[in-house]
Write a sequence for this structure.
């Protein structure tokens, strides 16, 4: 199992492999999904390297509001891509200061895992339940890319610690090929990008995802009934 610093370095070196593109929003969502699943499994390591980063960013930007590190970096960057690389520069400075004890080790800060969106939450099981009803609560924003990145981080964490896929997770594995067949696309694009391409915006794409995923599940059930009848 990789520690978070190692994972962040790998994402910085090859963002396309993990999150499709250098985007700070995709990065944040992926890391949340990754850490939330480790937390659910009781494997979140002590000494989280991001502990105190939000407070450090607020102090550095001289902001007294509750703006997150993501919002602060985005505000001071020209684009998502620019913010992505700015994050790593800032995070490296933060780590150096933290390692030099400029930030006190026993400072009362909230751990990142306390802000995770999925405590004891099987994201695959709840896709058509809680997330569909209240996507903003669980994803932060009603965006299909947010959902995709959370799922990727969630799945990577489970694979790294050798946790067998849940039944809903296994069922989801065929969704990618089903979407490719449905739209007649075989370009290697992810299911979220395909759905987004045929939608007006991210919000509509997320709503369309729920409809398509339900259709996918019902199709599988229909196939099971046909096999039993045959």
């Amino acid at each position: 199992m990789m520690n978070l610093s190692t994972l962040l370095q790998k994402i910085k070196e090859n963002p396309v492999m993990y999150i499709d593109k250098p985007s700070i929003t995709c990065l944040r969502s992926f890391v949340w999904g990754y850490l939330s699943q480790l937390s659910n499994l009781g494997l979140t390591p002590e000494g989280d390297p991001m502990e105190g980063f939000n407070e450090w960013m607020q102090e550095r930007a001289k902001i007294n509001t509750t703006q997150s590190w993501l919002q602060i970096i985005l505000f001071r960057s020209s684009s998502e891509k620019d913010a992505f690389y700015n994050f790593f520069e800032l995070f490296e400075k933060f780590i150096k200061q933290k390692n030099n004890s400029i930030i006190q080790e026993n400072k009362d800060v909230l751990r990142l895992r306390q802000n995770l969106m999925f405590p004891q939450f099987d994201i695959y099981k709840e896709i058509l339940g809680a997330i569909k009803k209240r996507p903003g609560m669980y994803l932060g924003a009603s965006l299909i890319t947010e959902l995709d990145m959370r799922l990727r981080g969630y799945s990577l964490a489970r694979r790294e610690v050798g946790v067998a896929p849940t039944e809903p997770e296994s069922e989801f594995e065929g969704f990618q090929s089903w979407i490719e067949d449905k739209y007649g696309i075989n370009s290697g694009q992810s299911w979220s990008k395909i759905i987004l391409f045929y939608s007006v915006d991210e919000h509509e794409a997320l709503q369309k995802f729920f409809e398509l995923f339900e259709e996918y599940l019902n199709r599988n059930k229909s196939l099971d009934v046909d096999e039993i009848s045959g």
In short: Residues 102-120 have pLDDT under 50 and may be disordered. The longest helix spans residues 202-229.
